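Q: I'm writing up a methods section and want to include an example of the input and output format. Could you take the sequence below and give the corresponding predicted structure tokens, formatted cleanly so I can copy it straight into the document?
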Amino acid sequence: MVDNPADQPAREASGGLLARARARFAEDFDAAFRNDPAARSRLELVLAYPGLHAVWAHRIAHALWRRSALRIPARVVSNIARTLTGIEIHPGATIGRRFFIDHGSGVVIGETAEIGDDVMLYHQVTLGGRTLNRGKRHPTLEDGVVAGAGAKILGPVTVGAYSRVGANSVVTKDVPPGSTVVGVPGKVRTAADAPLEPEWII
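A: Here is the clean output for your methods example:
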């Protein structure tokens, strides 16, 4: 059977999409291996890391979500991932490259959340809303943000690039880039404050 030249652009677009998807999956994989000192092998990551599985499932669900006719299948994929991993990521959430969820259990990421590149979340982090109104209602985490276990970041706030959110902190206001925020309610610590111990994260 002779290939139809008219089909060539579609084949090239499909091939490009698959190549980009493979590259994103590989980056997520490398980020997990790099950021978790407990990881003993790459096989262990593939078989036994629910945070990685949840991110991969989200990438598929989000691709479906971007087509309005496929939003129900997108929700089905995300619900299956939630059942299997204990991590709930709405398929509408926008997630950048090299994203890693460590431990993972209890993480919730809302529909209008936006996450930059090289972000890391620990277990029981919530990127939630504070209103029933439609529109932007979930947080934006810029590149390089780390949120410690149990952190709650609520509403359409922005956590600036390379900031750190301490374990169990509750953030309802914007956080400047390069900051550390701790407490309930979350308070930004300046460079003049005493440094936090490494254990603040987990």
